[in-house]
Design goal:
- The structure is a homodimer.
- By secondary structure, the first copy, chain A, is of the alpha/beta class.
- The radius of gyration of chain A is 27 Å and the shape is elongated.
- The structure holds a DNA duplex.
Chain lengths: ~375, ~375
DNA sequence: CAACTCAGCGTAAACGTTTACTACAGTGAA
DNA sequence: TTCACTGTAGTAAACGTTTACGCTGAGTTG
């Protein structure tokens, strides 16, 4: 099949490649390549001719050919748990922005919390030869990390996980935020606090729960196992978990959730049960998605900056891609902190105490 | 630079390519290629040897090389307005699922409603040589469509728009759903209905508004210009718009919104103003995102199935990519319908009428 | 003025596939 | 036995770049 340049064939528009540009600028293709790649050793006069030709022909280089020869795809993988959970789009947006600013494209994979899907995602990333991967889902199988390691692909992920060659971790300081949250509840007078976790097979969900338990202990409170429910980080999961708690003979007075979606699910369960937040139950979420400000009432939650997360992830990956800045510190810290809005208040039993026990005449 | 296969160099793991497989299977690379591409004219015996080698070496073809020679990138572009609006992740998820099932990867672009970003997205898609593009944002500049047309890239998008060669449209039947919504309000007794639109420079936002106006007319109601506010399809936009309406001397009794996020913003504005839904205002959203079921109270809204949208979009693109099924009908219809939940009720003035006018002693 | 340096251009060899074309072995008919 | 044909396998060209290498000619030095 002959090169179809300058063809009159209407179904095949004249493809313009580096040769066309070279011809028009009366230079070799090497010079064109050097010019558009800003190699300094090219005569400004020729460079000008090249640029003129480039704009006149509306030329842009073929990414595939570039990738093939250079071995770099200029693609960054981003694996998230569930694109449907608003935390992730916020993360993706940020991630994409900074990636594109550095000339990278992103390839998104959504695992839906399933190992098989996760495997597929990783496989797709490998096939597309991504230059680096950020795994923002919680919990990755080790053998997948190995796969990336074999191909020399930098990986960055969230959370406590076995450190391996080429995989850096973005450590989230769960403790700070969750501690603030528990203290906040304790100060309000809550003694009976429940926790709705994420899927516990995910390391990060496990970690949030463990941190909660630790903070509870620090506050001198005891955990009631019946009030530790395993959710799945979704709206439906939050609702179901709260319904389980409501079905219990004894209730907590406050609920902490492993993420905001769970908390919104809880709010809904409470609404259906004609219970009020924060009058009947105090509620704290986690993530501080934009929506948290818009729930009714607005959600008190623990903020984990996804801007921060995305930026640090891309920075980490990119810095390891340019040969110069070889060694970045292997661990970046992501902070968390409590944002108090309107789903936390005095515990119901405290009011009961006031009314029942001392029963002051006043009122 | 010599091919570094079988190198002992620790920093460069032995890359396995088609040649390695061919060698191990004792066949030529052409046979390997034919085997993995399921070309029928290959001896089952050799095929078996090839597959064995493939699995033993854990080989998978280099996508870039494939793309370069075949001219097909197996990449589908998906351009959305704003990845942060939950409607789009739901769409993306669906889209990705069916694309991956057909062996395609997807490249996401988020325009954030800005023409310049949109241009950038289109450019990126062109550079990556996507095989097709679905433009699920509302309103695209014509010259961009031309760009895609020049490269012979099938485009599919939503909505009324000039039909061009190679661009098919997925027509959303706004009328059905919005008509149901307006009727629903009218039957409840609402006569004063406001509308918060999306950004009006977007064709689809304009179209939803026009449809609303038409339906209002059909119901024998008049539009009050002051109650037609331009929002921006975001939470913040919805809140701001509702605040503007509340600042007016005369209020409507019901509000329809151009999307669910706007409606959630409205709910929030009302909450801040200590007004109740649906007692003080009835409210109808649009899209029926999953979250709509979880607002407090749950949002009455007009469902536009994103599953349907995604499926039809991918089907359309894919069917135009395989030479066989050349001609699909150029227009697919997407239905909309009202989902009644708890944000719509009797209008406040009706209650006032009951209380003020007849003022029955009973009570 | 000859020899040397080096900036800067062009040639050609990769990169890992697909696929048109060629070659060859086996089969059946004359 | 020979010829034509069929079914498969292999060879090599092409895809559009980047980049190592070699070459030219102008400037510098002795």
């Amino acid at each position: 099949m002959k090169r179809s340049q300058n063809s009159i064939d209407s179904s095949t528009p004249p493809k313009i490649d580096i040769r066309n540009v070279a011809a028009r600028a009366r230079v070799s293709i090497a010079t064109v390549s050097r010019t558009i790649n800003h190699v300094p050793t090219v005569d400004p006069v020729l460079a000008a001719r090249v640029w003129k030709a480039v704009t006149e022909l509306n030329y842009f280089p073929n990414t595939q050919a570039r990738a093939l020869v250079s071995g770099k795809s200029k693609l960054l993988g981003l694996i998230v748990s569930e694109i449907t959970n608003p935390f992730f789009p916020e993360l993706i947006q940020e991630f994409e922005q900074v990636a594109v600013a550095h000339g990278y494209e992103i390839l998104i994979g959504s695992t839906n919390y399933e190992t098989s899907t996760m495997e597929l995602c990783a496989r797709r990333m490998l096939e597309r030869k991504v230059d680096g991967v950020a795994i923002m889902t919680f919990g990755i199988e080790d053998f997948l990390l190995d796969r990336f390691a074999v191909d020399n692909i930098p990986v960055v992920f969230i959370d406590p996980a076995p450190t391996r060659p080429l995989s850096n971790v973005l450590a989230v300081d769960y403790y700070a935020g969750i501690y603030e949250g528990v203290q906040h509840l304790a100060v309000l007078g809550h003694r009976k606090i429940g926790f709705i976790s994420g899927p516990l097979r995910l390391r990060s969900a496990e970690s949030r729960k463990a941190t909660f338990l630790g903070c509870l202990h620090s506050a001198g409170l005891k955990a009631e196992p019946a009030w530790l429910i395993e959710g799945d980080h979704t709206l439906d999961g939050g609702r179901d978990a709260m319904q389980k708690i409501l079905a219990l003979p004894k209730h907590p007075t406050a609920i902490m959730c492993s993420n905001d979606m769970t908390a919104i699910g809880v709010q809904h369960a409470l609404f259906e049960a004609k219970l009020k937040v924060p009058d009947d139950f105090s509620l704290i979420g986690f993530d501080d998605i934009h929506l948290a400000e818009y729930t009714i009432p607005p959600l008190t939650t623990i903020r984990m900056s996804c801007k921060d997360l995305a930026n640090k992830a891309v920075d980490n990956l990119l810095s390891r891609l340019k040969p110069a800045g070889a060694k970045l510190e292997a661990v970046s810290k992501i902070n968390t902190r409590l944002i108090v809005r309107q789903t936390t208040g005095l515990p119901k039993d405290a009011l009961l105490d006031l009314i029942d026990k001392p029963r002051p005449k006043t009122r």
